[in-house]
Amino acid sequence: MLPKIIIHNSVSLDCSLTDFQPNMALHYQIAGGFEADAHLIGSNTAKVGVTLFSDGIPKEEKADFVKPKRDENLPYWVMIDSKGVLNGILHVCRRFEYTRDIIMMISEQTPKEYIDYLKERNYDYCIAGKSHVDLKKALEILSTNYAVKKVMTDTGRILNDLLLNQGLVSEISLLIHPIIVGKNAYPMFSEVKKTLNLTLEKKELHDNGYVWLLYKINC
User: Fold this and answer.
1) What pTM value is reported for the model?
2) Are residues 135 and 178 located together in one domain of the fold?
3) Residues 137 and 191 grouped into a single domain
4) Model confidence over 52-97: pLDDT tens digits?
5) Of 100, 120, 148, which residue is a domain's last?
6) Bridge partners of 199?
7) Alpha helix (H) residue ranges in 33-134
8) Domain identity same for 65 and 129
9) How far apart are CA 206 and CA 37, in angstroms?
């Protein structure tokens, strides 16, 4: 059985993912309420995050080659990275104290040097797909091998829209910010290929004009 997938994103009123300053405290406060077993993250989103929120890439230390021993109730971070985009910077993600550990989803055509990099540092990795990661297969692996029942993704448009187009998403959570980006907007759903009918499950008004909406996708 596939895990339940929840897309959670902070967006502007015109549904842009970029060109505004998100309220990260409120974003993660809401995200924590889902109590997900795993967070699904695209490699490009992870790389941008490391670049934006780290003061340079720190050198690896001996501890970075060892699996962390953390609370088993913490979520895994599951990275989709068939091309080795995160080679050399994964230790920055592993050091984040609110993740149990990193699980990499790669493909049969992932470069050997990247697989060697993962092995040397004791990262779990799973091959799911030939040239690209097969998302459905990756989710099946998470369910079977890691007992993952609920997955949250607050990644960028590409991964979100792929999940939506493949019918893998159960709910969409949007923290709407009181701002319109306008002509520079990077619209969240612009690559969705079909009309999706939704049912509003929850709504909350927060201070300073923030609105949280939770929608269920109707099958």
Assistant:
1) 0.92
2) no
3) no
4) 766 778 999 999 999 999 999 999 999 999 999 999 999 999 999 9
5) 148
6) 216
7) 43-53, 90-94, 112-120
8) yes
9) 26
